[in-house]
Amino acid sequence: MATLKWWQSGVFYQIYPRSFADGNGDGIGDFAGMTTRLDHLHDLGIDAIWLSPHFPSPFVDCGYDISDYEGVAPEYGTLDDFRTFLREAHARGIRVVLDLVLNHSSDQHPWFEASRANRDNAKRDWYVWRDGRDGGPPNNWLSIFGGPAWTLDPRTGQYYYHAFLKEQPDLNWRHPELKRAMWNAVRFWLDMGVDGFRLDAIGAVYEHPDLPPHTVPLSAEQLLNPMLLSQADYRALMRWQSLQPGLHELMKELRALVDQYPGDRVLLGEDEDVAFHGSGDDELHLVFNFPLMRSERLSPAHIRANQAERLAALPPGAWPCNTLGNHDGRRAWSRYGDGVHDAALARLHVALLATLRGTPVLYNGEEIGMTDLVLTELGQFRDTAAIAQYRLLTTVKSASPAEALASITVTTRDRCRGPMQWSDAPHAGFCPPGVAPWLPVNADHASGVNVAAQRADPDSLLGFYRRMLALRRATPALVAGDYRTLAQGHEHVFAFLRQDAASGQACLVALNLSAAAQVADTGLGARSARLLLSSAPGRERRVVAAGRLALEAHEVMIAELD
Question: How many Å apart are CA 243 and CA 213, to the nearest integer?
């Protein structure tokens, strides 16, 4: 196999810490709980954990409003608890990547408290302050979560800028002292031994200094929630608030800092723009292939087009990164299922991620088929963006409470943040029976959607995940091989070849994304292939004709060419 870095060959797994495992019995996930569950990840075949924010936070935006970049939120434990978690993860061969929020802090961070104290404070320009215009804000920019992007601070009579919530003031990266302080925070965690960072909302780090107004011709109603706009409208709206000059230079500076440390530390960007790879080795190591996710159903045509465009766009030396779920969107089971064949489709989805060229990133709970959490009362919601949207709908749009609740129920990020389901015990074994979890637990934990039940069943979704990830690890072509699509015009079968020049191994991957048996001509002629894995029950033939594949409904077939 070609020599790859660990972040190229490994499988990443995102943990949302508040929902993973409660170790101290207060209904909130924590490091003590996460540490006790590391064996689950080791057995699953995980190589790296991406940990959503664990820092001290008022939790106005679910932890992405940070009040101390060098600490641990008390509900999650202490720095010593984190060190224990890091040590135990490393002992199992699992790397740990932290979420790093560069764009903004909490308004309760001591830096912002100093900044807003008076206009002459030494930290005043660590944030973005401007005078108002014509009795209102400096311009008509909008927050990504809805409403104005400017908030008036009565104490000093100026407005501060926030791309997200008003409790999340943007940091001013043009200020050298602010930059120095943030780089010191990065070094703090690297010195401790963390293996890198996932960079949150990097596109928003800079805004245009001249504050040109947006000129998007949309109504006030359409602009209530920018996140619901089309991609084109959203980009137009945020034209002056994102992807501004200086951003790539900043990423190069961060990359140079990280490269000073041994162990191939990694930077993973929450963005889809391959320009963040820089020249291929001077900005970010990994950039998410978010366009792969943007489909109601994952069809062969969509996947083929995505791979053709994505792989061609990567600069030389850059490495792909694929995912189908995270803490901000619907769970993959609910998003891509059809309500009838969901279990079979879930197997196809992990097979796709594990066999495409690039690093796969999984989200906690996908391995057991966790579904969207359905909340029925406003008091159950913890997603502040959804709650803010509810208020906008009921006040600005005059929606009834029932209409507003129905609207946020199908958009809230709480849907994918429900507690991890470990067993069929009360609260799914996430926390003690007599303690209320921070979010309700999905009722399906009592009917087999839990780790304990599936661990005992080799035919479960968890069992398939383990086999699939073990096969990937043991098969050089699936990790390092080149990618070539096959059966190009097939409507229902996505087939491709992974070939590793170093080992000479070639693997045929065929995914039948339909509910009917299919035959696919691959163009491989009379060649035969040794079956490595199939999701079809009872498939007995260990050698298949590679040129003409006969696939069962929703079958995953992986075979090594002779």
Answer: 16
